[in-house]
Amino acid sequence: MTGSEPGFRFHVGALTDKGRVRSHNEDSVASIPETGLWAVADGMGGHAAGDVASAMIVEELASLGVPVSAQDQRARVLERLDRAHHRILAHVGGNGLSAAGAAVAVLLIHQAELTCIWAGDSRIYLWRDDCLTRLTRDHSEVAQMVAAGLMTEAEARVAPRRNVITRAIGVGAQAQPEMVGGAVRAGDRLLLCSDGLTEHLDAADLALLLSRPDPAADVAARLIAETLDRGATDNVSVIVVDCEAAPLPEDAP
């Protein structure tokens, strides 16, 4: 899939799989290059809860429209995450459910401005100049312990409560996404993923696969395949976005 923003053309691979263990897929993905938006939503709460929650988030984000600025783009996304949050709460209350919600990671690109908006432990990575950088930080119990110096990253990967998140869309009185910004360059490769990927692939694995000079769609497929080969105990979703400088119009000076 390809799309473009002024100054950039995007090549995208977006895939989701239920994995080897789960009976159904609670993840949802959105890839809308024409509005500069990509998202992974990792639902929780079981059938008719987690899958509904992640679908509601993607449905709201799909209504973004074409933003006039990066600030407008961010404001529209925050508004839609808030709407999704309250729709999920209403779904829980109206169907007698104990809980439902979803972790979400949203990547926004408007011209050369990049924004990450997220809640939970779905992640966004940047592969640039042969270096992998994680742009998000997990909202999880183990991430808090690592930040406090009470646990190492290696210990966090195998901790019994490693999947307990502290923020999610649809959980709590208000949505509490976090946001960071930056700039995108031609040649950048970005990865969005649910924790079903990072449960099995560490940073070295991701760097190896993202360094391949293959099209984004092939890299996304390889990431999914590698996770399935390693057991895929959870649903797994990935979006790979390659940023290419768009050619100037023929009549440009």
Automatic annotation (TrEMBL):
Residues 11-243 form the PPM-type phosphatase domain. Pfam families: PP2C_2. SUPFAM superfamilies: PP2C-like. One of its GO terms (molecular function) is protein serine/threonine phosphatase activity. This is Protein phosphatase. It comes from the Bacteria.
